[in-house]
Amino acid sequence: MFKKFTKEEIHSRANIKSSVQRSLRAKLLAQFPDLEPVIDDVVPKKSQLVQVKCANRMSLYGVNGEVIFTQHFDEDLVPTLRLVHKYPDRFPSIRVDRGAIKFILSGANIMCPGLTSKGGKIPDAPGYEKDQIVAIYAEGKEHALAVGVLTMSTEEIKSVNKGIGVNLMMYLGDGLWSLTDV
Questions:
Q1: What is the pLDDT of residue 93?
Q2: Strand 133-138 vs strand 164-171: parallel, antiparallel, or unpaired?
Q3: Do 167 and 147 meet the contact criterion of CB atoms below 8 Å apart?
């Protein structure tokens, strides 16, 4: 989604009213309940939240010049990789095997065998549902290397073990990762 993202794709920038900011905080907490203890650090009450509208109806939301989450149309809020790095244990996560790293860092979607192999790890029952946003870690690595959305539930990934398991949204080194000062 942000593979070739550049500043030229940014159309406008606007400060968000406090009432809208409260509703975005509530939506973020509804999606990621584990953020509750740190929500005041993620979206401080006294700071100004900024919305940056981009091409293809993509919105970036930032605080203090740093993008903290994105949204396409009125879909779910997606935490940026930088936010996942700051609060690694607050987001649903999966792990891929070592062989998938180079493909992910070039923007490829994650195939089911990369999640179900010896180095991969997906949660046991009940697991995650289809369309769940997940942080993607790699075998032997400490920090997340991507954020994506599941194309099927974790139970389906285990049973089918074919095809795309996760659609990549952002990864280390993509256009959004390189974007500074929003």
A1: 95
A2: unpaired
A3: no
CA dihedral sign of residues 98, 68, 52, 32: positive
Q: What is the mean pLDDT of each run of 10 residues along the chain (182 residues)?
A: 80 92 93 94 89 91 92 91 94 94 94 93 89 95 95 94 94 86 70
At residue 47, the pLDDT reads: 87
DSSP 151-166: SS-HHHHHHH--SEEE
Distances (CA, A) of 148 to 116, 137, 168: 17, 11, 4
- Output the six-digit token pair for 76: 């779910």
Give the pair of three-digit tokens for residue 164. Answer: 């795309």
Q: What is the largest CA-CA distance in the chain?
A: 48
Paired with 171 in beta bridges are 146
- Separation between Cα atoms, residue 104 and residue 98, nearest integer Å: 10
pLDDT at 73: 85
Q: How far apart are CA 43 and CA 57, in angstroms?
A: 22
pTM over cut 0.85: yes
